From TrEMBL:
Full protein name: Phenylacetate--CoA ligase family protein
Residues that span the membrane, as ranges: none
InterPro entries with a match to the protein in the record: ANL_N_sf, CapK_Type1_Caps_Biosynth
Taxonomic source organism: Anaerobaca lacustris
The organism's place on the tree of life at top rank: Bacteria
Length: 453
């Protein structure tokens, strides 16, 4: 018998209302099913109109941009062509941190906002505010991505990526939940061991899952486990994200699940979206925002840095935000008939898997999720600097330099988060320090993986 998880289903009902029923979703989805066949000139006109609206919006309602535009003498009417975006400086993650709450539009407050946080392998994870309309609009793009991968709204999906069933440090009674409204099965990525593979495979089958959305590393562990045990799980599609999908992983995943793999790239900041079409080309999605691909400095000269402006999250708009990711640009046009730019490769983090003492197989993205959650706990604490160091495969140390206002209560909160997030069998330690080993100036937080095998 299939277990229906009530909590997941209630949450799903809310998600369903926002993602599928809101006018913002339906209007934009209808629009972008048309615009995907636009000519280059039509797409540029679309982008310019959105950019002009965005700049007017930030001028009127975002204190950070109002100040920046006044300082630089930029007025909304100055944006007459797409290149005019270059009057804005490139924004770094440090700029975002300094901006604080001034980067949030005064038009969106309270219940209209959702908060997530940035990922990335360097720096303190920062809050990302999203308005509910942007969530609906995001889903219009996800929906079209699924169309390209030949997935229908009625197709059931399973998720094996950053979604949390339970914290890594907990031993939950269940490693999954099923949302009957969205028809989504969530499997815990943070409890993935070779032993749970048959259980996960069984869940995929009993829930009649058609598509798996996963980190390449996690899908690979599951795929390899299925192949080794001779378990057959036929899916229609696997979608992967967040790590480089190398050939070995792609082949293993495709073989185990007997279907093609569609890779994609997005960011918590909601500024850029790149995903594969039915012909297997990576396309930069032009209606999502303006993606500038800027040649990287040596030794990565054939790669480009992704600097992006998102059109749709008006609660926290980012203009020319440097995502610090690298892609390999292609001059090819795709045979699918869309004139969207093509990218050959996304140089993401590698999908190496580490094995913890308790046998968990965690990929780079899963580890990063864990570390980001630990570091995010320090976001509003009086801490001068901090980082998580993975000393060995079985030990995490949170080093931090407390400020004068740092209290026992703060230390207690950090210890709780550490305990919650550290996988079983791993040693977790908090170490207050006078300074971190290398010279630091001002407030910064990063994580360093040392002696990582
Ligand atoms: Zn294409």
């Amino acid at each position: 018998m299939r277990m229906i998880d009530l909590k997941a289903t209630l949450k799903g009902a809310k998600t369903w209302l926002i993602k599928r029923r809101m006018g913002a979703f339906r209007r934009l989805y209808r629009e972008i099913t048309q615009t995907q066949w636009y000519s280059k000139e039509q797409l540029e006109a679309f982008q310019l109109a959105r950019l002009q609206r965005l700049v007017r919006h930030v001028w009127e309602t975002v204190p950070y941009y109002r100040r920046l535009m006044e300082e630089r003498g930029i007025r909304p009417d100055d944006i007459r062509q797409l290149d005019d975006i270059q009057r804005f400086p490139i924004m770094s993650k440090e700029d975002l941190k300094t901006a604080g709450n001034d980067i949030v539009s005064t038009r969106y407050r309270g219940a209209l906002l959702n908060t997530a946080h940035t990922g990335g392998t360097t720096g303190l994870p920062l809050p990302v505010r999203r308005d509910i309309w942007s969530i609906a609009r995001e889903h219009a793009f996800v929906r079209r991505q699924f169309d390209w991968a030949d997935l229908k709204t009625s197709d059931r999906c399973a998720y094996l990526e950053g979604r949390t069933v339970a914290s890594p440090g907990q031993r939950p009674t269940s490693l999954h939940y099923y949302d009957a409204v969205m028809r989504e099965l969530t499997l815990s990525t943070f409890h993935l061991t070779p032993e749970v593979v048959p259980h996960y495979a069984d869940l995929l089958q009993t829930h009649k899952i058609r598509a798996l959305i996963a980190y390449p590393s996690a899908a690979f562990v599951l795929a390899k486990g299925c192949l080794e045990r001779g378990i057959r799980v036929g899916l229609h599609r696997v979608l992967t994200t967040s790590e480089t999908l190398d050939e070995v992983k792609r082949k293993t995943i495709a073989e185990a699940f007997e279907c093609p793999v569609f890779d994609f790239y997005g960011s918590a900041e909601r500024v850029c979206y790149i995903h594969m079409c039915e012909r297997g080309s990576y396309h930069v999605i032009p209606e999502y925002g303006i993606t500038e691909l800027i040649p990287a400095a040596s030794p990565n000269e054939d790669c480009c840095q992704v600097v992006a402006t998102g059109f749709w999250n008006l609660a926290m708009p980012l203009i020319r935000y440097n995502l610090r990711d690298l892609v390999k640009v292609s001059q090819r046009t795709c045979r699918c008939g869309r004139v969207f730019p093509v990218v050959d490769k996304i140089m993401g983090r590698d999908g190496n898997v580490i094995v913890t003492p308790s046998g968990l197989q965690l990929g780079a993205s899963a580890i990063e999720c864990i570390l980001a959650r630990i570091l995010y706990a320090m976001y509003d604490m009086p801490v001068v600097a901090g980082r998580v160091v993975q000393d060995a495969s079985d030990a995490l140390t949170l080093e931090y330099v407390p400020d004068a206002e740092f209290t026992e209560e703060h230390a207690g909160r950090l210890a709780r988060v550490m305990a919650e997030q550290t996988p079983p069998g791993m040693h977790a330690e908090l170490r207050a320090k006078k300074e971190l080993d290398r010279t630091v100036r001002g407030k910064f937080v990063s994580f360093v993986m040392a002696n990582h095998h």
